[in-house]
Recover the amino acids of this structure.
């Protein structure tokens, strides 16, 4: 490729949130080809630089491309009926015990062909792209057998090939007990460990392995077997932990150097301390807290005290969080969990990258990194958390390409 074809763009007079902090001075970002060439305070911008680039853009707030580090985006069907049941007072756990909940989505997802699943997921992933997301994690977990779990992961990979977004996949076969194994949970764990994880690893379909450690999910002992199998195939682990009760899932995850413990409304101090020792990220999911009308707030002060990075994600799924707007989570993390706007922004950028093991490549803006960032039509980064206002994304830059 000859050098004249490499485009150079300059954004100047911008306010920069780099993934950790907002710079006090007005800044400029120079992009060359697919990566960030340089970031300057405006006071140090080389004279004449603007004349040497293909285009100069003026003003706005720049953040890293947003990262949604916990989603269940690939699924078929709808659970609007259960929404109504919950409004009438039936709990999420009770609906699950009656065979609804996750299992109702499992039936619809098993019945859907790969293309139908792609078509069903496209509007949801497009909504996130339009909201500034450039990296997304997508879990399986509505197949619950070898064939359908792999099908979900293939769909997730395919979406990443089709669209301007990085897709990270997570195998969540240990999400619920499938109907065929209702009386044999350990038999299902055998299937996960002996067949599903090995195949997902061999076909390079999963970047990590997740479990739902809960009374209505799997016991810590069962989750530990899944972690051991994942570790055998060098796949990092994470968990849906202490969402509805405290089973010590976060500490278990920490023992396996887990990337993240997610939900964690019922997390206690020993669990927090264990996460601190292993560098496990706390992923907060205010959308599920809101949808389930939960009242137990995650132990934010303890997480701060132990300096645990807090990520924030949508948990986008058909049951506990039918929410496909990451910018809304910025507001909810502040309003419901009392995060500061800066903490919330770190949660969808640098800390979300840490939760995915991508901190060297995503979620932080510095020279030499891929040019994945957003330009927002606001005066200060805190406004992104303060107001619930779609439509403020001015430009979305993915691998140096301006895609919005
Ligand atoms: O993260 N907790 C379990 N899994 C999802 C819910 C999935 C569903 O209800 O379909 C969650 O909240
Ligand atoms: Fe989840």
């Amino acid at each position: 490729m000859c050098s004249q074809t490499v485009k150079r763009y300059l954004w100047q007079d911008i306010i920069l949130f780099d993934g950790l902090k907002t710079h006090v001075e007005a800044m400029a970002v120079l992009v060359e080809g697919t990566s960030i060439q340089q970031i300057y305070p405006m006071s140090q911008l080389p004279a004449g630089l603007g004349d040497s680039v293909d285009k100069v853009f003026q003003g706005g707030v720049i953040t890293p491309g947003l990262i949604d580090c916990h989603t269940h985006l690939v699924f078929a069907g709808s659970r609007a009926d259960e929404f109504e049941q919950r409004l009438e007072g039936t709990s999420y756990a009770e609906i699950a015990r009656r065979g609804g909940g996750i299992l109702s989505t499992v039936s619809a997802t098993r019945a859907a062909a790969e293309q139908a699943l792609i078509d069903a997921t496209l509007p949801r992933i497009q909504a996130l792209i339009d909201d500034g997301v450039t990296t997304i994690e997508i879990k399986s977990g509505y197949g619950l057998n070898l064939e359908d779990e792999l099908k979900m992961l293939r769909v997730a990979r395919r979406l990443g090939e089709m669209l301007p977004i990085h897709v990270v996949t997570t195998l969540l076969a240990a999400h619920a007990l499938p109907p065929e194994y209702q009386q044999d949970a350990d038999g299902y764990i055998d299937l996960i460990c002996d067949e599903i994880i090995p195949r997902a690893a061999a076909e390079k379909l999963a970047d990590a392995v997740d479990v739902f450690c809960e009374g209505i999910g799997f016991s810590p002992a069962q989750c530990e077997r899944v972690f051991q199998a994942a570790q055998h195939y060098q796949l990092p682990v994470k968990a849906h932990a202490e969402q509805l009760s405290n089973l010590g899932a976060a500490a278990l995850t920490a023992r396996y150097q887990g990337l993240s413990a997610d939900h964690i409304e019922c997390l206690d101090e020993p669990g927090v301390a264990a996460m601190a020792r292993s560098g496990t990220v706390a992923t907060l999911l205010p959308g599920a807290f809101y949808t389930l009308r939960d009242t137990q707030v995650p132990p934010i002060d303890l997480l701060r005290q132990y300096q645990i990075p807090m990520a924030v994600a949508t948990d986008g799924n058909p049951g506990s969080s039918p929410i496909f707007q990451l910018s809304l989570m910025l507001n909810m993390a502040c309003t419901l969990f009392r995060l500061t706007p800066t903490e919330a922004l770190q949660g969808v950028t640098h800390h979300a990258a840490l939760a995915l093991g991508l901190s060297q490549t995503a979620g932080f803006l510095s020279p030499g990194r891929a040019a994945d960032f957003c330009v927002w039509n606001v005066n200060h980064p805190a406004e992104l958390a303060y107001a619930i206002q779609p439509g403020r994304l001015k430009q979305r830059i993915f691998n140096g390409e301006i895609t919005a």
About this structure: The domain at 66-355 is CATH 3.20.20.140 (TIM Barrel).
